[in-house]
Amino acid sequence: MAGMVEQKLAAQGVHLHEPASPVANYVSFVRTGNLLFVSGQVCFDADGKLIAKGKLGTDVTVDQGNAAARGCAINLLAQVKAALGDLDKVVRVVRLGGFINSAPDFIDGPKVLNGASDLMVAAFGDKGRHARTTVGVASLPADAAVEVEGLFEVA
Fold first, then answer.
1. What is the rounded distance in angstroms from the CA atom of residue 36 to the CA atom of residue 21?
2. Where are the beta strands (DSSP E) in 33-139?
3. What do you get for the CA distance between the two ends of the chain, in Å?
4. Do strands 146-154 and 29-32 pair parallel, antiparallel, or not at all (unpaired)?
5. Using an 8 Å Cβ cutoff, are 41 and 50 in contact?
6. pTM of the shown model
7. What is the pLDDT of residue 23?
């Protein structure tokens, strides 16, 4: 049976899928003590297709980027569930790091990353409020529009 956090997500139409396996020489997550570091997750949907492809500011709108960041957050939570077995073991979302595939003059990266931040708050309430960094980058794997990494305090 799903825990409270997963039930809250399901009520909002969010269902966690099998998390993606690493595609290079790294692991999906590392737990040390009560901290869980989750590797960057690009904006693949449950079928392995990119939610948004290309650069924000030219190929991708802010709304499409926001949806892509939300997809990244769903992928983060799928990795957290794989690591812990239950999202209810998350004590706090500590930090999100967002990478936005950006045109050189694109300045709305924070609006894009709100898609991930909003999902964390929707899932965990005040425990989902976190520190955050948003960085515009020249490219991302598979030409994904967004990638998000996370740091979680866990029980």
1. 17
2. 35-42, 90-101, 131-137
3. 19
4. unpaired
5. no
6. 0.97
7. 87
